[in-house]
Amino acid sequence: MFDDTCRESGQIRLAFANRFFTMIRRDDILVDVVNSTDMKEKIEKIVLGIKSVSVSYYEVLILSLLVKVMSINISILDIEKIMGINVAFDSRFTNDENVLEILSFSDENTDYRIKSAVTARMILQELDCNDVIIKVLGKTANYTNKYRSIERYENVLKNIISYSHVSTFLVRSSQKEEFLVKYYDSLKELEYYNENTFFWLQYAIACANIGSYDLAQRFLDTAYEYFRESEYTVPFQADTQQARLYLLRIENEQRPDNIELFEKAHKLLMLPAVSSKDNEEKKIQLLNKYVNPQIKRKLQKKNPVIYRVYCGEAYNMVHGPMSRFSTS
């Protein structure tokens, strides 16, 4: 009986592994197909075909793709109100052969799905629609801001500025920096975002990820400012991102104050968690940057004693949480 159970368990694991690797191979094939010149030209032709019929249809299509790719919880009826166009019952849109190459609609046209997430990302990343993305997400923010007291719409406001969501369609070209600054700048005056620590923190993260460290510091300072004005919020996320920014500057810039930045980063990373929302995993990932070759070389050259002491403290901090995890 024990042997049968083990055999059955092994067969289940093998079947799962086969399905998993089949999925990976299928996704790799899809990416290769979409990235081929012929397919890019075909997709561009389809999208331009939609745009030639109606610019409004084109904008609705881009928002529809963003809603699915970014996991934004709004319905097709919300999209209609946001864009000011009734597409659900507009047969010119729902029956357009180019639209149907990308989207498929439910029987009553009350919902839709993307036929290929890979194709959707390719359209958003490659087809020079940055201005339209900014426009339709700006309209989405303005629409959901009116209903921000409803949790579903407040979550939409958070999702469309979360860098982890924005990065799902982020352009791969040199336009990345221009797009991010223009996008977040277009939203910063909206009532929900203007004094919102999460917004400024996401803006700072975006800037840090594209190497705009001065801008990242400026927006982190703004996030801290609003944290201090709230008696209910502990700036753990901001502290973590500030430490990350210090370490990125040591790694990627030639600076005379590397040791000072390292001391500041270390002090922030040694702070204890004080909230259930504190993500210690992020902190541990940053402590791992202490042994990054660039950081190690620069700091050992400047002050090997401080570097060695702080690495020891980092090891002790990581060893505690990891040992608790392994015995639980």
Q: Overview of this structure, please?
A:
The longest helix has 34 residues, at 2-35. A hairpin with a 6-residue loop joins strand 1 (103-105) and strand 2. The radius of gyration is 24 Å and the shape is elongated. The chain starts with a helix and ends with a helix. The chain has a two-stranded antiparallel sheet. It is mainly alpha-helical and 328 residues long. The protein contains 18 helices and 2 strands. The protein has helices spanning 2-35, 37-53, 55-69, 76-83, 91-94, 117-126, 130-145, 151-159, 163-166, 176-187, 191-194, 197-209, 213-228, 236-252, 258-269, 280-287, 293-302, 304-327, and strands spanning 103-105, 112-114.
Strand order across the biggest sheet? 1-2
H-E string: HHHHHEEHHHHHHHHHHHHH
Q: Helix share of residues?
A: over 70%
Which secondary-structure class do the elements indicate?
mainly alpha
Major β-sheet, in short?
Answer: 2 strands, antiparallel
Shape: elongated
Q: Work out the helix count.
A: 18
Portion in beta strands:
under 5%
Q: What is the rounded distance between the termini?
A: 30 Å
Radius of gyration: 24 Å
Strand elements, count: 2
| Assembly state of the chains shown | single chain
Average pLDDT over all residues: 83
Report the uncertain regions. 20-31, 322-328
